[in-house]
Amino acid sequence: MTRQLHYWQGSFIDEAEAAERLAELPTLVEGVLAEPLSTETVLLACDTVSQALREPDGDLHARLMAHQTDTADGPDRAEAAATLAELADALARPALERKLRRELGGPRPERLTRPDARETRYEAWAPVGLLVHIAPGNAAGVAPLSVVEGLLTGNVNVLKTSSTDTPLAQHLLAEVAAADPTGAVGRRVIALRFSSRRQDLMRLLCAPADAVAVWGGEDAVAGVAALVPPGCRLVEWGHKISFGYLTRDAWTDRAALIALATDVCRLEQQACSSPQVIYLDTDPDADSSAQLFAAAEEFAAVLDEVSAKFPAPSSGCGAADDGADPAEQAELTTTELVARAEQHLGLTRVLTADDGSWRVFADTRPALTASPLHRTVWVKPLPRRDIVATLRPMRRYLQTAGVGGHRADIAQLSRTLITAGVDRVTPLGAMLDGYHGEPHDGVYALQRYSRRVSVQAPEAAFSTTPCLDDLVAPAAPPAPPTGPLMDKAAAQAQIRTLAPEHAQLYFHSGGTTGAPALSVFTCDDYDTQMSASGNGLIAGGFDPAHDRAANLFFCGEMYGSFISFFSILERLNATQIPIAAGPDHEAIANALVNYRVDTLFGMPSYLWQLFHAQGDRLRSYGGIRKVFYGGEHFTSEQRRILTEEFGVEVIRSAAYGSTDLGPLGYQCAHAQGTVHHVLTDLHTLEILDPQQDRPAPAGEPGRLVFTTRTRAGQRLERYQIGDLGRAVEGVCPCGSQIPRIELLGRYGDVFRMGTYHFNYRRFTQVAEEHLGYRGELQLILTSQADREQLTVRLDGAYAPDPEAARTALLAHIPELGSAVGPEALLDCAVETATTSAFERTPTSGKLRTVIDRRTTAN
Length: 858
Known about the structure:
Elements: E1 6-8, E2 11-13, H1 15-23, H2 25-33, H3 39-53, H4 59-69, H5 77-91, H6 93-104, E3 121-127, E4 130-134, H7 142-152, E5 156-161, H8 168-178, E6 189-193, H9 199-206, E7 211-216, H10 218-225, E8 233-238, E9 241-246, H11 248-251, H12 254-265, E10 275-280, H13 289-308, H14 326-343, E11 348-352, E12 359-363, E13 376-381, H15 387-391, E14 398-404, H16 407-420, E15 424-427, H17 445-448, E16 450-456, H18 459-462, H19 488-495, E17 505-508, E18 518-521, H20 523-539, E19 548-551, H21 561-571, E20 575-577, H22 585-594, E21 599-602, H23 604-613, H24 615-621, E22 626-629, H25 636-646, E23 650-653, E24 656-658, E25 662-666, E26 675-678, E27 683-688, E28 702-708, E29 719-728, E30 740-746, E31 750-753, E32 756-759, H26 760-771, E33 777-783, E34 788-795, H27 802-812, H28 814-819, E35 826-833, E36 850-852
Parallel strand pairs: 4-5, 4-7, 5-6, 7-8, 9-10, 9-14, 10-13, 12-13, 14-15, 19-20, 19-21, 21-22, 22-23, 33-36, 34-35
Antiparallel strand pairs: 1-2, 1-6, 3-16, 11-12, 17-18, 24-25, 25-26, 26-30, 27-28, 28-29, 29-30, 31-32, 33-34
Helix pairs in contact: 3-5, 3-8, 4-5, 4-8, 7-8, 12-13, 20-21, 26-27
């Protein structure tokens, strides 16, 4: 039976078929690259596999364990399990998002956005195209993770592993592809297993490549370099040398020596970050030989103890071979014999284990010398003043330096070692450890696998276009979310179980519809959301280059509006005057005039009070051109007054959002009424039937249910926000392909009274259309012994006679007229009051639209 060794875009094939398909690789790549790949799709697929790998009794874990251990040359079960645990950590969404933020600036690096919001110049990270990975044979996790990096950067990836490697990489990548129901990931993955001696296959592999990532020594890299076409980017992950550097205090510190000996024993020095040399900061003006040999003996004693705790692998060649193959064993023997011969010249001292499991070679010459590995380490003198002169000639080979010393020593030595060519400085005992997002060999891999591209667009045509990609058809969306719906109580319960690193920013809701709720974010969550909101403001007509904005949202008591818009405007490099809402309307009006403010941000109810209280001052100023509001809506009559009497040219929603979910949508320059584009960069929206958990018919009202995708902290999935809305069909006149919704109010806007259902918005509509009313409107629901009472509160500055208002409401709201008619199911009254008498939430300043004071709500 032919062995199916190779994975090719979703299926396993034999070598003959792989060779045939390699010949067609250029045509294949062109077709696949034409299909956009969302980073979100890659993150979802990888995280699905990560979660499955974390179940040691699961099917996926068992399959991948078998692919590692069912071969004669494979690792033992403990090593195989450790590899899978490392892969699970590396594939987890938080780790990959952290990597994207560190290396490419954010979780959606493929989008053409403005680096400076004041200019219509767009930049993004684009794939190089066809990325070939020629993987090493000594690190099982490197090969598949390099391909994942290629996927995060949108490339078509072809991986070549050695024919002697286990098939772990092929099968893991097949699982990642299978976890993506769109198929986009699978179309970008090919994973082959063959020997580099197959030059015919190597040529077919490298000829169409746009970039080749290769691991190995100089000969291996040179062999690949000879095959790549002109202009192909060669990404070398070559062999590196790492070392420990000990100050005088450190080389006499037993704890420091134990930590360094542990670095020597872990992985048998097979990692590039394993120490091969130990340098001592000796006195440059004295004979250091005695110190050197004494320190080497002390380290050898410690290494003997530590080595006994790390059983060495065996290749079957005897106890002393430490798992080395015959060639490596020959190098060990030769190096030791030469060092022993030089003892007679006073140049070296050789210290070895009785069973040959470790070796320490003390050498009086400071030149960097590679170790034959397998717990073999050189100890050499190197005064700190000579570091750069000694090591810089070898800078292309240097990687990690584990430094032991006091705080000042570490700071000074770190800078000196970096000058000499070292890429990493770590504590002793941590040389082999890394962290998510850490540079590798002095570079970020994702940047090496990408191109930085730019588009300069005409300002007049693109002033309200924050992202060019919004104007084209998007990539296939991720699979729709599944699982139970979440409500506010479930979201609050989730907070209590969050790890501290996932709860860095705390906000309270305004409490408009009940007790204030707590929401928490990571700083990265917050940054991503504020940047997305900033893009929405640009689409709505805010001009960061010229507008002078006053932030008049409410601040304090952990309420987020003022802080959020301060952050948004800051990220836009906009001019802002952060005043915050307050009771002294005169002082605020004076500030607006004195600082030449032309754009206001705030709650409609507060801004309306400000214009009302300081009407003469603001009319005289005439400089307010734009108003961006949040949390509530202006009525049509209020908009007319602001436009005709105060000269406001733009009145638009600053954002649609909530404290718990963050920003959800934005209004573009063509938005009408309560229509918003959905922030699909952040969330997936479902519109469900008002009564049943199924999608609402197209264009029909339903419950808005959001799944937030860019949150490392709270994971709100299928969260019922409490709003009603409907999808708006067709492409927006602004040209954006981003979906739109029309907001239809909150569940709380609909209430039952006297057997009828009423909607708050109907009251405001009738008051505006039939009474010419331009003020705020508040409904108070109370109950009496024999019936219920509905009181409509109007602003006395704009209200008609209360009885005339009552007559109009009864005539134009049929349900209300019936309820207060002969059946007398409820009483209805209209009262007028000053704006200060209207009840508002103390934190946000929002108007409480419906106040239910009935002892038993219907």
